[in-house]
Amino acid sequence: MKRDLDRAKDKRTGFSKAEWGLVLAIVLVAMALRPGIVSMGPALPAMIEAFQLSHAMASLMTAIPDLLMGALALPTPWLVRRFGVNKVLMLALGLLSLAIGMRAYADSQGLLISATLGVGAGIAVAGAMFAGIVKASFADRAALMIGIYATALSLGSTLSAGLTGWILQSAGWRLAIGVWAIAGVIALFAWWRVMPTAVTTQAVPHTAATPVARLPLRTPVAWLIALYFACVNFLFYSILTWTAAMYQEQGMPAAEAGAVLASFTFCFMLANPVVGMLSKRLDRRGWLAGCSIVSTIGLAGMATAGAWPWLWVPLTAFGLGGAFTLAMTLPLDHTHTPDAANRWNAFVLTIGYLIAASGPFIMGVMHDHSGHFTGGFQMLVGVSALMLLLATRLKPPA
């Protein structure tokens, strides 16, 4: 009787009871993977003052996690095969929570950087696992699940962007960035709950009979996907790092600047499921190009001395949010097994995040030399235009 009820629920919702538990756990884990980065945006001006940091040095608070998301993407599939999804993910979430707490109470630049390395490592390893998780349990609904995952990432970003500035004004920057360790603890508990029932969480031993999917180093389309993903994240993390600081320089209170940043992450979040659901065909070039055009228009507005933030920031976010979902889906379009998906995803993340890590740093250096953010945002317009060019070359698999 119970099995019949579960089957009836499958027909009605598309997910079984066990799958719904896994979906919820994925959402809670995803929500924990961005506050450790996004909370830096509203808090950076206060941290620059407290530690006497240059803008280039301050950019490392987001550039280091970006860099590690690229560097640790390659070994993560091996770790998953060696130790299983559960152990690797639980360790990553534990490290993330601990490092966020340590960074909040750092008393020196060295400890601040060391804790940020821990934050980046936890985010990097956990994030690199989800292509394989989706491929294993939701292969026929990959675009939908990537949309859900990306939406949850953006929801965590939105909450941290919107609340960090308010907490900072009320209780100081340390509590404002440290409170987000709680999200990691919640995610850790959620994954522990689904471990006994979710098929995805079971370790699959690698044997000689199981072919190892190699990195697609000689596949041109894989490089194009990686470069498109790199552009999306170059823009995303540059905007996350410096948008609130730019408006605070123009006299905007920290809470309001945080709200502007929250409008970016909120509209980014709205675009994730919308584009994920609408882009049903393997040939996604039209959607990829459309998202690139929208983000280019929005960034051009942001580069105009920061005018009309409530128009240009959300517009930019909507274009980038759709582009991010599609870029995460493209490796799944070109693979047939969870291990192959992990390898393609690792390749794309490695190339993409290693390039993207330079975005916040370059903008910080440009500000140190010029004293303003105008030139940096003009550079972002050019990167968004490059996305449009790449989109036209992303042919679907034959």
TrEMBL record:
This is CynX/NimT family MFS transporter. SUPFAM superfamilies: MFS general substrate transporter. PROSITE patterns: MFS. The chain crosses the membrane at residues 20-37, 57-76, 88-106, 112-134, 146-167, 173-192, 221-245, 257-275, 287-305, 311-332, 344-366, 372-391. Residues 20-398 form the Major facilitator superfamily (MFS) profile domain. It comes from Methylophilus luteus. Keywords: Membrane, Transmembrane, Transmembrane helix. It comes from the Bacteria. Gene3D superfamilies: MFS general substrate transporter like domains.
